[in-house]
UniProtKB/TrEMBL annotation:
GO terms for biological process: cell division. It holds the Pfam family AFG1_ATPase. The keyword Nucleus does not apply. PANTHER family: AFG1-LIKE ATPASE, ATPASE N2B. It comes from Actinokineospora bangkokensis. This is Cell division protein ZapE. Residues 1-11 have a biased composition (Basic and acidic residues). Gene3D superfamilies: P-loop containing nucleotide triphosphate hydrolases. GO terms for molecular function: ATP binding; ATP hydrolysis activity.
Length: 352
């Protein structure tokens, strides 16, 4: 059966759907603290699991009249009287890509009783845009927890919009947990910028306990490199052999991504069994590259294998891009796309 095309899809999401879909994506639908495997060489990872459990216990107890025991647990983990995190309504997971921050954030979300919401930064900003600020506050202010993955600091306007939202929500008693991307002027640092995150959110900084999660990218520990790209004929054969696959020219897909809001990229690939991209080549513009990063994140969230012809996915971003301010985003995208390319090696129809 001929494969479909992502470029033929025009995803639409209603405001009610935006609220209802604020849950962890499929890859993280079943994760729990118990399924997180800390790197034995990185003690901060096991400590982060403990901190996440303590925060979840505090959030779970905060609305049920049983806050005293969770509060004591928070003090034990984050410090005693005057400790950096004791009793704070926010938790910020600070670390590089591939250390399992999203796994920990989703585990925390699963452990807390509802009502609760989980979304990426772009999904939260889109929710505010679709509902209006006051309506977004009204819909979320009754929640126990708002978990925000990939908190962006690149756009000052969006950052301050979400900062204002979080200020109102925490004032209303909502707990917030977040992971964050780096500021664009942080070149190649080995960690995400916790201090910059806290400075950017200004008055909220005192409300967040910061937990470090150190370590190398787990997606590539002891694993082989991504498979080589296929030829165009083999790529088409692979797409036809896997029901539910899509097959697109890479340039056409990049143009299509410019016409679809990034908050809809997840719906763009919902139900797709495997994405096949013909003629992959290094990207030429920062705007295109950042859209591909967001697209790669949604593919990874949904565990959609990726098969390509042309250049390997590891060569999508130029050396100049990898030296620039979005270095960490590009490296994270490469890490995730290489993992998805590796997943695709077992698809039917692949040449031996």
């Amino acid at each position: 059966m001929p494969a479909g095309k992502l470029t033929d899809r025009q995803p639409e999401i209603s405001p009610d759907e935006l609220v209802a879909e604020l849950t962890p994506p499929p890859r993280f639908g079943d994760v729990r603290f118990d399924t997180y495997v800390p790197n034995p060489d990185e003690p901060s990872q096991a400590a982060a699991v403990e901190s996440g459990r303590a925060f979840a216990a505090a959030v779970g107890g905060a609305g049920s009249g049983g806050a005293s025991a969770p509060a004591r647990l928070l003090k034990k983990v984050f410090g005693g009287r005057g400790g950096a995190g004791a009793g704070k309504p926010g938790l910020y997971l600070d670390g590089g890509f591939g250390v399992g921050k999203t796994h920990l954030l989703a585990s925390l979300w699963h452990e807390v009783p509802g009502p609760k919401a989980f979304g990426t930064f772009v999904e939260v900003t889109n929710l505010v845009g679709a509902l209006g600020f006051r309506e977004a506050v009204a819909r979320l202010s009754g929640h126990r927890l708002l978990a925000i993955d990939e908190f962006e600091l690149d756009d000052p306007g969006d950052t301050m919009l979400v900062t204002r939202l979080l200020a109102e929500l925490t004032d209303a008693g909502v707990h917030v947990a977040a992971t964050s991307n780096t500021l664009p002027d942080k070149l190649g640092e080995g960690r995400f910028a916790a201090e910059d995150f806290l400075r950017e959110i200004q008055a909220l900084s005192a409300r967040f306990a910061v937990v470090r999660v150190d370590g190398p990218d787990y997606r590539h520990r002891g694993l082989p490199d991504a498979p080589d790209p296929l030829g165009d004929a083999d790529l088409a054969a692979s797409a036809e052999a896997v029901p539910g696959s899509t097959l697109d020219d890479f340039d056409a897909l990049c143009a299509h991504l410019a016409r679809v809001h990034p908050s809809k990229y997840g719906k763009l690939v919902d139900g797709v069994a495997a994405v096949h991209l013909r003629g992959v080549a290094p990207l030429s513009g920062q705007d295109v590259a950042l859209r591909v990063v967001a697209f790669a994140d949604r593919l990874y969230d949904r565990a959609v294998p990726v098969v390509v012809s042309g250049a390997p996915v590891s060569e999508l971003f130029t050396e100049e891009m990898l030296r620039g301010g979005y270095r960490k985003k590009y490296l994270r995208a490469i890490s995730r796309l290489v993992a998805l390319s590796r997943d695709a090696a077992s698809l039917p129809g692949r040449p031996g």
